[in-house]
């Protein structure tokens, strides 16, 4: 890996936990319950929290199941339809976005305590926002013509005032922007949603059981695996061949390249400083016990 992709990936690894606590924190589930969502499982609130920024791309009623299936990529269409568009009958995207801010505020206060009111939080928020605003310059306006782009949708939202909320929103813009580029890289590699997951499991990113959360049937998984074997990307035992490893490496490098623009815009000294400042909140998020030790993103594996 060249130096720049490594630095870009480092920033993703630092920012991803700061974004992802929303999907697991008890404070977020309490806010979701107050909206009327069933919190017996995490998916109703997950789909609502993550899809609500894209409401302006289609209608005030919220993005459709077809939109969410394409934008999220890895979920079975049947699983998406089990939640979307029903989530918008429970709460409007506007209400979801307001509750999302409250959920992040409460979660960060519980996780980070006095840090959120200190100078390091303010400095980190300002630097992260500068990087995220480069996504705004690159991507806003891509939704109607270019298909689902969650980075652009989040970049178009108004910025909150409090530094810790700015930090979370910037982390979200940047991780969704990276995700949009990742999906483009997967499609360029000829990897549909199921094949994307099968090939990722094949390189040891996470156990196959972890990917079951995306709702694909055993039959669909087996068909995708057979297709990858036929392409010479998987061996008969389901592990990646040399060609399969190389293809996944190429996907990740293309993803890093597509995510590099905001960090180039920020500049290397400020990127390095932001990485230093993120140490405290990153450790708090990782050490909270909220996040799963194994995840479908394969952080730390690629």
Notes on the protein architecture:
It is a single chain. Helix content is 66%, strand content 0%. The chain has one domain (3-189, 250-287). With 302 residues, it is mainly alpha-helical. The protein has 17 helices and no strands. The chain has helices spanning 3-20, 26-35, 43-51, 65-72, 77-81, 86-90, 93-112, 119-139, 142-146, 150-155, 163-188, 193-202, 218-230, 242-259, 261-266, 268-277, 279-287. Mean pLDDT is 91; it is low at 140-146.
Layout of secondary structure:
Blueprint: H1 3-20, H2 26-35, H3 43-51, H4 65-72, H5 77-81, H6 86-90, H7 93-112, H8 119-139, H9 142-146, H10 150-155, H11 163-188, H12 193-202, H13 218-230, H14 242-259, H15 261-266, H16 268-277, H17 279-287
Helix pairs in contact: 1-11, 1-14, 1-17, 2-7, 8-11, 8-16, 11-14, 12-13
């Amino acid at each position: 890996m060249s130096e720049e992709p490594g630095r870009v990936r480092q920033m993703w690894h630092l920012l991803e936990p700061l974004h992802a606590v929303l999907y697991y924190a008890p404070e977020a589930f309490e806010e979701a319950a107050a909206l009327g969502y069933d919190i017996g499982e995490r998916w109703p609130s997950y789909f609502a929290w993550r899809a609500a920024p894209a409401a302006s791309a289609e209608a005030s009623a919220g993005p459709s199941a077809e939109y969410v299936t394409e934008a999220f990529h890895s979920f079975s269409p049947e699983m998406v339809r089990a939640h979307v568009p029903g989530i918008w009958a429970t709460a409007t995207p506007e209400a979801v976005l307001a509750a999302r801010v409250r959920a992040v505020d409460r979660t960060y206060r519980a996780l980070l305590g006095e840090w959120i009111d200190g100078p390091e939080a303010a400095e980190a928020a300002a630097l992260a926002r500068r990087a995220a605003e480069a996504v705004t310059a690159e991507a806003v306006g891509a939704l109607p013509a270019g298909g689902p782009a969650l980075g652009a949708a989040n970049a178009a939202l108004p910025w909150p005032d409090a530094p810790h909320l700015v930090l979370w929103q910037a982390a979200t813009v940047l991780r969704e922007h990276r995700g949009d580029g990742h999906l483009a890289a997967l499609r360029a590699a000829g990897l549909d949603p199921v094949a994307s997951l099968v090939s990722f499991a094949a390189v040891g990113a996470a156990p196959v059981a972890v990917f079951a959360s995306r709702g694909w049937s055993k039959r669909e998984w087996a068909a995708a695996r057979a297709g990858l074997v036929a392409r010479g990307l998987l061996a008969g035992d389901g592990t990646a061949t040399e060609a399969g490893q190389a293809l996944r490496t190429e996907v990740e490098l293309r993803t890093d390249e597509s995510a590099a623009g905001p960090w180039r815009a920020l500049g290397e000294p400020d990127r390095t400083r932001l990485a230093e400042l993120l140490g405290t909140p990153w450790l708090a998020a990782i050490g909270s016990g909220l996040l799963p030790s194994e995840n479908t993103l394969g952080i730390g594996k690629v």
